[in-house]
Automatic annotation (TrEMBL):
Keyword Signal listed: yes
Name of protein: Outer membrane protein beta-barrel domain-containing protein
Segment forming the signal sequence: 1-22
Highest taxon of the lineage: Bacteria
UniProt keyword terms in alphabetical order: Signal
Organism of this sequence: Pedobacter helvus
């Protein structure tokens, strides 16, 4: 009888401990520098932005993320004419894995809503990784992250063929993350 009670108490205590760790919530604020790649580098040399990311732990090494931000890409001159800057508000959901306590790998997908002009909404996908650097506070850390991000548009051309274009970049961020 005592053994059964011990087993029940052990499993209840374990599940409460697991739930407390899994439900950890983090909020991050980060400025970004974005370096266009591929065809995007012929349009823009550099981009700037910022993001707010919420992270909800679902297990010890896994979390779900929600990310919103703003990106501005300064465009180059083409044939003596300055192209309009590219502005977008990307909204992404993702999944994060922690192979170690302060290192993560993540993937995100969502939509980039372009600001101004006749721009369309783009599909966004973004794999990345990062690390945390401890600060003096127990609940806050600095975050350094690196990601590849692509905004993909699909449209029909004049001859009704499907055309896909992509604007991609490498994003570097150094932000502040605090736990709740």
């Amino acid at each position: 009888m005592k053994f059964k009670l011990f087993v029940v108490v052990f499993f209840v205590a374990s599940s409460l401990s697991f739930s407390a760790q899994a439900q950890q919530i983090k909020i991050g604020l980060a400025p970004e520098i974005n370096l266009p790649t591929g065809n995007a580098s012929s349009i823009s040399g550099v981009g700037f932005g910022g993001a707010v990311k919420a992270e909800i732990g679902i297990a010890d090494k896994y979390a779900i993320t929600a990310n919103g931000g703003y990106n501005l890409f300064l465009t180059k001159r083409k044939l003596g004419t300055k192209l309009a800057n590219i502005e977008a508000v990307p909204i992404k959901l993702g999944f994060k894995h922690y192979p170690s306590q302060d290192f993560y790998i993540e993937g995100q997908a969502g939509a980039a809503f372009h600001v101004g002009g006749a721009s369309k909404t783009s599909f966004v996908w973004s794999p990345g990784f990062g690390t945390y650097i401890k600060t003096g506070s127990a609940n806050s850390k600095l975050e350094f992250g690196l990601r590849y991000e692509a905004w993909t548009n699909t449209s029909y051309g004049a001859t009704t063929t499907l055309k896909t274009t992509s604007f991609s970049f490498i994003g570097l961020k150094l932000g502040y993350v605090f736990g709740m």
